[in-house]
Design brief:
The chain has 255 residues and is of the alpha/beta class. Helices cover 52% and strands 16% of the residues.
């Protein structure tokens, strides 16, 4: 039975975790489906922005513990394959040349928090909770730690992964784990408004902006500015840019 649903509405593609009876826990099968979904949406020329969401009360409470229990005593190679399957999902989200917006309700814990962190924007319900509790049962949030450290910095990351504590949406926003906290009364409407607004931007400018944003991780300051120059030149060569500039100039002239 599929662990996710893949939908498209206009220029918005949707990946929906669909194991609400298990709080959307992630196993290797779900990881494989998520990676395939990213690849499919990359190839869909109609999609400009992707939403990652979940059915049920919780976004995702982590790795499937039943699957982990069944794998106790497995070989190092089998364990590596499991870890790599989830790692490919995180890399797939980042490599997707379309912005990925994660909307989180309920709990996002362990691998679930990591999945959200891999996305470009995280929109959290005011009652959502985030945490990396792996250390409490002898595990390590290893695959997601690179993303977490880059997102919130060394001290906040250490606080989360070494204590295993669960934090509120407001605290998650304060430390940079969450982009915005949205009120419960208008959560779905506010998420839809963000997605609709982003989907109206040209696909090329969205792709170039996302590419440069993460390319800067590997560059010095000088090289980052140089990469920005190259990207600016590429953007100016597109039809969308030229039409957009003309439209904005005409509007300014009419004022």
């Amino acid at each position: 039975m599929p662990r996710i649903r893949l939908e498209r509405q206009g220029a918005i593609g949707r990946i929906i975790l669909s194991r609400p009876e298990r709080r959307n826990v992630i196993d290797r099968e779900m990881a494989s489906e998520l990676f395939t979904a990213c690849a499919q949406l990359e190839q869909d020329g109609h999609v400009r922005v992707v939403q990652l969401s979940a059915d049920g009360e919780d976004f995702c409470v982590g790795t499937d513990l039943q699957a982990l229990s069944s794998a106790l005593g497995a070989t190092s190679e089998a364990n590596r394959e499991d870890a790599e399957a989830f790692g490919r999902v995180l890399l797939g989200i980042r490599a997707l040349m379309k912005p990925v917006v994660c909307s989180v309700q309920g709990r996002a814990l362990g691998a679930g928090a990591g999945l959200a962190t891999a996305c470009d924007l995280v929109l959290a319900h005011q009652d959502a909770e985030f945490g990396y509790p792996e250390v409490r049962f002898g595990s390590v949030p290893a695959v997601v730690m690179t993303l977490l450290r880059r997102t919130v910095g060394e001290k906040h990351a250490a606080d989360l992964v070494l204590t295993g504590r669960v934090i509120s949406a407001d605290e998650a926003e304060r430390i940079g784990l969450v982009s915005r906290v949205l009120p419960a009364a208008s959560f779905e409407q506010d998420v839809s408004a963000v997605l609709a607004g982003m989907s109206r931007s040209p696909s090329t400018s969205l792709a170039l902006t996302k590419w440069l944003l993460y390319k800067l991780d590997a560059l010095s300051f000088d090289d980052g500015v140089a990469a920005g120059v190259v990207t600016d030149v590429e953007a100016r060569a597109t039809t969308e840019y030229q039409e957009g500039v003309r439209r904005m100039a005409d509007q300014e002239h009419e004022k």
